[in-house]
Amino acid sequence: MVIDIFEIAGHRVEINASIRPIHHYTHRLQGHLPHRYCLDLGASDGLGQSNTLHLFMQGWRGLLIEAETRPFQKLQHFYHQHIPWAQTLQAHITPDNLLGALESHHVPTELGFVSLDIDSFDYEVLATLLSTYQPAIICAEINEKIPPPLQFWVTYTPGHVYQRDHFYGMSLSAFAALGARFGYQLVHLCFNNAFLIHKRWNQWPVLRQEQAYDTYRYGPHPPWNDNVEALLHMSPEQAVLFLQQHFAAYAGRYHLQPS
User: What are phi and psi of 205, to 5 degrees?
Assistant: First the structure.
């Protein structure tokens, strides 16, 4: 959801609503974070609706990773020219190569902020990340169409390419449950960006999954979600059957259970 548009050095920058909670959490925890370092997995061009640009502009160090060539070229050009203290990497991140990529770029094991949006097997990438790294704050795109208590995630399949449909990522319940295994607490949902903060640093009320999801359930919905709106009114068992039919072309490539 774009809330502002401006220019930096002749480049159009779109600001989304997630900037507000990101600024709030990072500002309040300033001085308590282990490092002013952020990791952006699925950074696109680093300008349009970026979750990390404003942090880099405040002097944060970090690494931005993007797979697609055209947005990465724009990202690389802008950051090398205007924010040289940030590193950039073109790579198709998977659970197999993530840790090697981070180690080769000297990413600290304790860092301030992670943004995750790779439109595919985000769950398994995050699980791999948390096996070794401990960010204070995580902002991840969730598959907002899939309500609690459904646990859904796309499993890692080499060569998988996002088809710009509803088959991507992970549900809010899957994200929150995975985070809880590593000591993270759910504090906010902003449309399809969910926030976890590790209990070492969390100063905010912990939300139940349904409580957080109400911000989407009762908020404005984009028209491209119309064909799956029925999920919001189904029992978990009905929703599983609905999704199994909807994702029939992807059978065997996802995890789905009622809770």
Answer: -60, 140
- Nearest CA among 246, 178, 188, 243 for reference residue 213: 188
Beta-bridged to residue 114, according to DSSP, are 39, 138
* Angle, alpha carbons 138-33-65 (nearest 5°): 45
Other Cβ atoms within 10 Å of 1 Cβ, number? 14
Q: At a CB cut-off of 8 Å and minimum separation 6, what does 57 contact?
A: 83
**Distance (Å, whole) CA 113 – CA 99:** 17
Cβ pair 63, 102 in contact under 8 A: yes
Model pLDDT for residues 199-242, shown as the tens digit of each residue: 999 999 999 999 999 999 999 899 999 999 999 999 999 999 99
Strands 151-154 and 254-257, by their bridges, are antiparallel
Query: Would you give the end-to-end CA distance of the chain in angstroms?
Result: 29
Return the CATH number of the domain spanning residue range 19-257.
3.40.50.150
Residues contacting 114, CB < 8 A, separation 6+: 38, 39, 40, 41, 129, 133, 135, 137, 138, 139, 140
Cβ neighbours, 10 Å, residue 76: 17
Q: What is the pTM of this model?
A: 0.96
